[in-house]
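Write out the 3D structure for:
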Amino acid sequence: MDRAKPLADWILAEIAHLPDMGAAVETLAERLLAAGLPVARVATLIETLHPRFIGAMRVWEPGSDMRLRRATFDDPAIVGATKLFPIDEVIETGGWFERRMDAPDIDRYDLLPRLRDEGYTHYLLMPLKFRDEPTHGISFATKREGGFSAEDRALLEALRPALAAALNVQSVHRMWRDILAAYVGAEPAGRILKGAIRRGDVTRIRAALFLSDLRGFTRLANAAAPEATVAAINAYLDRVVPPVVAGGGEVLKFMGDGVLAIFPIGPAGDENAACVAALAAARAALASAGDGRVGVALHVGEVAYGNIGAADRLDFTIIGRDVNLLARIEKLCGALGEDLVMSADFAARLPDRGRALGEFELKGFDGKTAVFAP
């Protein structure tokens, strides 16, 4: 097909190198429209390798912002769905899904009745195969009377190999970023993907430091079945982690029942702001936990941040004197009956230093260390 080759060459040369899948879909849609294809809606449906999301759909319509919808494993619209999903038929058959909006079975499907009501006349869903992964899809819809022509469909079919190759590159990049972020955190994931992968590749940073602990965890783990222990840990982390992330913190490590996080100090060097954010996150986490079984320690200081480990097995984490001090301070939560304790350095950077809890000898540290509570 004469107009297919230049479009396929452009897809292979340009789409894979755009910043993200959203930019790829938008650029592709506009190019297809300029080439005479009457598209009024283009959407990618890509399965993801993510602990929370089944897949992601990015939707382009002219004059509208790019939309992203992520389907979760517990999404009631999917788990309890009473209508059929076109993508399921594509995955099952490996072939195209196609419907004109005057078809008698439109109401059996998710999405299609809404598209019909919005004036669309024809919907095509093309399967895309990325190596050995499950089938993904890209859909095209038009509002042109009579729908897509046979020539339009043939053009899209001719472009399918190029689209699969280019969108696979976009998908793989996003997949690796999602996987790394799930296991090491978003900011370390970005550093790793930019090449920070050598052992000993660390930088010194100053940050507000956060460490939480679930009291009575050892007793719980000894008495409960492993599945019950995992469920309890997950419930605890669901209460502690979201406030940290929402407050600008970066969760670096789960240590059994411990959560280690940092609130990096920005380029302006505003340590006070980082400490205020860490305190707000700690209070929100404790309020969410609500049972008095969580202890949180806060400190501010300098840490070595980066790749630490054996030659072939690395951890992206923080180490240093201030991390050790944070861990010692956290142990005082239970001893003092306090949910939240802070170092003197941390308290000094708050509008209100709080109340002094006293000075204590900490293992491995000379002299006594003053601690505070809000």
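DSSP finds twelve helices and 14 strands in the chain.
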